[in-house]
Amino acid sequence: MSDLTLQFQKQLGETFFDIDIALPNRGITAIFGRSGAGKTSLINVISGLIRPDQGEIRISERVLFSSQSKINLPIEKRRVGYVFQEARLFPHYTVKGNLRYGIKQFDAAYFDSVVDLLAIRPLLERYPSALSGGEKQRVAIGRALLSQPDILLMDEPLASLDLPRKREVMPFLEQLADRIQIPILYVTHSLDEILRLANYLVLIQEGKVVNAGAVEAVWSSETMRPWHDLSEHSTLFSGEIVQQHHGYSITELRLAPEVPLWVRQVKGEVGSAVRLQIRATDVSLMLERPTATSIRNILPARVQQIEHRQQDEGGRYIDVKLELAPNCNLWATITEWALDDLGLKVGMDVFAQIKGVSISQQDVAVSR
Q1: pTM strictly above 0.90
Q2: Cα torsion through 72, 78, 83, 86, rounded to 10
């Protein structure tokens, strides 16, 4: 299958959209940016709610819009599933009635698979007024999937939920990328949702794509710095579970062929893929390998980059980019005093210490 291709221009108010990007044909692509950057407008163009001035929109080889070929499929023929911030369920229909609304050809097996995926079978005979906010959103996701779309668009589906309801829905969203073989575009302003859900990240600013790529790469890029304060600056890794040490309740992960890492025990099978977040403030640097320390993770590294960062409250800190292995980098945040005391320079060999206990279950996402 080909990628999802978006190439269009559109003037909306004072914002001129000039988008030219190819996105993965499966998995969750997060659309991220400041309020008013154009995140929702981008997916509304795909859905047909907004008509571009010119360009082309294509899912695989299927053209939804082409100004050159004079193609502009109506919304009902685009095969697009859309989940809004609010569930928008019909109050006079049961959950089953809401799920079946708009289905042109009922497929009992597919219906059951979606109901089971979202764990909404006990809700089928209830009316929306008897559902929690999280249950309503799960039903809305199910209704969108049951239309058997070629793409699923989600516009901040957790934004209207309180924290307990978000935690209720999040596990089901995590499973979508693995279970649903279509592209999912997920608009969000939440860094936590990006970390938990996204495979690919698109950063939008004033109607333009300023960065796009695998979430691990974009997360550590310069364009994401405005969203990372001192406590949030971190590195994302894709790795795997190597072994479980149940006696000590710890798990060994592998970030690269020669880069192991011990963390607090993570629930998952050996060989499972993981995404790991390591905060830069949890990394300390040494010139020599320590011989007696409680810290289990001592990784040889080479200084790649040194950046001075000015904090809003007036303090200055140093961000140090370390190479652990080819294409495997780690950020550490230290003080200017530490920089001067250690005499760090680009190209120097050092050792990075990472406390395994500082990495919690919330920092590790295991693929299902």
Answers
A1: no
A2: 50
